[in-house]
Design goal:
- The chain is α+β, with helices and mostly antiparallel strands.
- It has two domains: 1-73, no CATH class; 77-131, no CATH class.
- Helix content is 17%, strand content 21%.
- The chain has helices at 28-31, 70-74, 91-103; strands at residues 3-5, 11-12, 20-21, 41-42, 49-52, 78-81, 111-116, 122-126.
- The protein has a five-stranded antiparallel sheet, with no helix packed on it. Strands 6-7-8 form a three-stranded antiparallel sheet, with no helix packed on it.
- The chain is elongated, with a radius of gyration of 19 Å.
Length: 131
């Protein structure tokens, strides 16, 4: 059975290549979502959970270096955060200034913290390197 790391995208031919295998995954209970896919183990490279790769699973991150998996094409929930420091006289004015910057054609919003709701994995994505 082919397995794929949820974080780094590395693929494995069988569970024997993994660092930890089910059910001996440290902290497994806190790393699973009710009704979610059960992992096969943990990645020896980055320690993230590794899942069976099939028609509905695969690399759970499409960073442009590989073709998107079926799961990516269907879509998942992500929390995307952008942080900016602004000078303002109050909360509303600060929010309005941030909104103007974010929507502007010369927006400086290029670095985002992106968290996958399904896995809880957070990555900082810097899009300025692509421009």
């Amino acid at each position: 059975m082919k397995l794929t790391c949820d974080n780094c995208g590395k693929t494995f031919g069988n569970e024997g290549e993994l660092e930890h295998r089910l059910p001996d995954i440290p902290g497994l209970g806190s790393r699973l979502d009710p009704g979610g896919i059960v992992p096969g183990g943990t990645c020896p490279e980055c320690g993230s959970l590794v899942y069976p790769a099939g028609p509905d699973q695969g690399s759970n991150d499409n960073d442009g270096t590989s073709s998107p998996s079926t799961a990516d094409q269907v879509g998942r929930e992500f929390l995307v955060e952008w942080t900016i420091d602004v000078s303002a006289t109050g909360f509303r004015q600060a929010a309005e200034r941030a909104l103007r910057i974010q929507r502007g054609h010369d927006s400086i919003a290029t670095v985002f913290d992106v968290t996958c709701s399904a896995t809880g994995i957070c990555r900082t994505v810097d899009l300025s390197e692509e421009s």
